Amino acid sequence: MSNSNTNNLNCPVIAGISITVDKEGRYNLNALHKASALGDHKRPSKWLASQPTKELIAELENSQSPSTGLGQNLIKVIKGGISSGTFAHELLAVSYAGWISPKFQLMVNQVFLDYKKGELKNTLEPSKSYLPEYRQAKAIELSVRALDKMFSNLPHLSEQSKQAIYADTINPIAGKNVIPLPKLENKTFSAGEVGEMLGVSSNKIGRIANKLNLKTDEYGIFVLDKSRSSDKQVESFRYNEKAIDVIRNHLINKEIA
């Protein structure tokens, strides 16, 4: 049984995914996201939450004429049922596709044009011209899922470290720098490097840091590093210059005492 809110017959199909259209002609953004084969970072909710998107929607709302039949309802969310999803005006749907990637936008735009002209090609597989990108997108999606799962077990890992790991993993697959490397505002040092500066062992640096509660954003960052006792990757804290000053003063005060 079909949902009366959507037209599930002869929908445009992209990469084997039917892009359902509601009765006002709005396109299902969730279906477009699925067709792109990318991860959660490209979900419609991420796009809708951005300031440029909010400005785009506001501009389109202001330019709408009564003849469009949509008025202010450029976005509609259907919850539950077989036709659930976020449905958007065609111009917004194409813009969302461009936010996913320029190549995907061109593909979506052509499919939408064919759909409106009645030249719909209802293929069940990704088009040959898009197949390499489709496979690439699937590889990126699987990599992002694996990294998200890994990060869920590393709650202290800094956002800078996460971004660097995402970039090192995703960029080689994409063949370009789709994720920029983070800019490090302050230089940080490992416990071993701090120990060499202050003439003590790295273990003592760690003990002092724990005692003084220095392993916070104020005094450095958590990064992913190789364990000294195995090949396992573990969270490791790197100290900034402020932390080094605190540790140095602590050691001096201990000597005086």
TrEMBL record:
Pfam families: KilA-N. Residues 8-115 form the KilA-N domain. It comes from the Bacteria. This is KilA-N domain-containing protein. It comes from Gilliamella apicola. The lineage of its organism: Bacteria, Pseudomonadati, Pseudomonadota, Gammaproteobacteria, Orbales.
